[in-house]
Amino acid sequence: MSTRDDELGATIADEETTNPWAAWLARHDVQPYQLARKAGWDAFVAAGPREDFATLTRTQMDGLGADAREDYDEARMVWNANLPTIRTAQMASAFSLMGQVLASGRRDGDRLRGSVVIDAAPGLGKTTIATRFAKDFHRAQYRRHGPTTPEGHQRLPVAFVALTANMTLKTLNSKLLEFYGHPAAQRTTSTRLASLAVDCVVSCQTRLVVIDDLHFVDFAHRAGTEVSNHLKWLANEMPVTFVYTGVGLAAKKFFDEGLHGSDVVYAQTSRRATRCPVVPFSTTTAAGARAWVDLLAALEGHLKLAEAHPGMLTDHADLLFARTQGHIASLTNLLDRACYVAITTGAETVDEAVLSHVVTDNAAQNSYAAPEQPARRRSAARRREP
Ligand SMILES: Nc1ncnc2c1ncn2[C@@H]1O[C@H](COP(=O)(O)OP(=O)(O)OP(=O)(O)O)[C@@H](O)[C@H]1O
Ligand SMILES: [Mg+2]
């Protein structure tokens, strides 16, 4: 090696010791997983947890140079924004139900399998439940059967499809083909697309197909009925179990296939699909309140702030519940932002003052403001009293 190479090597090694966070960011910065493509899904399934690093004290932080401090803060913002997936009671019961439905997934290809429909309000963790379950399933299949099928195709135990507005039969099939990276995904006729999709599923030995955001299909209209019939056909044709997620699917007549009145009994979907509701946290019962505190306790240990301490979140359980109404997506949003405020203002903890600076998502913000209004009106009225 030349002297120049030696010098370069020494500088990199030096930076690794004085600024290990730049190196950490190079390995663990925000990951652009594209779950709806096989390469992206594969990367998501193969990814392990991010490497942990020590949380510095205020004195240690004060001793850092400007670049190292900037990178340390950036690294912990990435860390704080990627909270671990907690096995909540909602997730455990959904997993158990999906496990039951998948028991029929072991039926031979000539017999029909059921499907699971994760049907709940926005931001309750539907996609997280479906993807984490599918990830575990994918890993188990890989471990047992290896990455290649006996015919030499890449084994893809799971396919993931995210729907968008105005879904039709054709777009559904092309999205499925897009997952497999099939060159015909954008071309060819609807019928051909459907048979190509079945080919992909069969040759890659896919056993689970996750269809996210099914509420983009309007089952009360003809295009929706076509999609619904097509999904039934796919379930007949392919030896897979479908997991659907969506908002208000029962109200959107997914189970009834858009039928009304006495005709509803003819809806096969209702007999084939199992509804899996996901409820928000609730603090009205002792068990519910305990589950909420347990969730906060699991999350608070993960946050990298110099003044983080046990009780940092659990001591504010009521306030955090009021701010988020027990919706896990609103909670994780709020915590990302609270950590950002804590780091940028130098507060280095999550307390009432920091929380008062955090603006949550629209629904959480509106619901938090709403119950306060009567109280504000009452106190305004009191102020007006002589
Ligand atoms: N079990 C969990 N542990 C930790 N965080 C979670 C968990 N479930 C959900 N979250 C957080 O909530 C966010 C929203 O979850 P997710 O996208 O799964 O909800 P959703 O019900 O699919 O939402 P939408 O209705 O908008 O599609 C996630 O990005 C994650 O931050
Ligand atoms: Mg979702």
Helix fraction, binned, reads 40-55%
Shape: globular
CATH topology of the largest domain, anyone?
Rossmann fold
Largest sheet: 5 strands, parallel
- Report the strand count: 5
Give the CATH architecture of the largest domain: 3-Layer(aba) Sandwich
Look at the structure and give the CATH class of the largest domain. Answer: Alpha Beta
Q: Gyration radius, to the nearest Å?
A: 25 Å
Q: How many structurally independent domains?
A: 2
- Low-confidence stretches are 373-386
Helix-strand sequence: HHHHHHEHEHHEHEHEHHHHH
CATH superfamily of the largest domain: P-loop containing nucleotide triphosphate hydrolases
Total helical segments:
16
Small ligands present: adenosine-5'-triphosphate, magnesium ion
Q: Assess the beta-strand content as a share of residues.
A: 5-15%
Pfam families: TniB
Region (Disordered): 365-386
Organism: Pseudokineococcus basanitobsidens
Biased composition (Basic residues): 376-386
At a glance:
By secondary structure, this protein is an alpha/beta fold. The chain is built from 16 helices and five strands.
SSE topology:
Layout: H1 3-18, H2 20-28, H3 38-46, H4 58-62, H5 66-81, H6 89-103, E1 115-119, H7 126-145, E2 158-162, H8 169-179, H9 190-203, E3 208-212, H10 222-237, E4 241-246, H11 268-272, E5 273-277, H12 286-300, H13 317-324, H14 328-345, H15 352-357, H16 362-384
Parallel strand pairs: 1-4, 1-5, 2-3, 3-4
Magnesium ion (MG) binds next to helix 7.
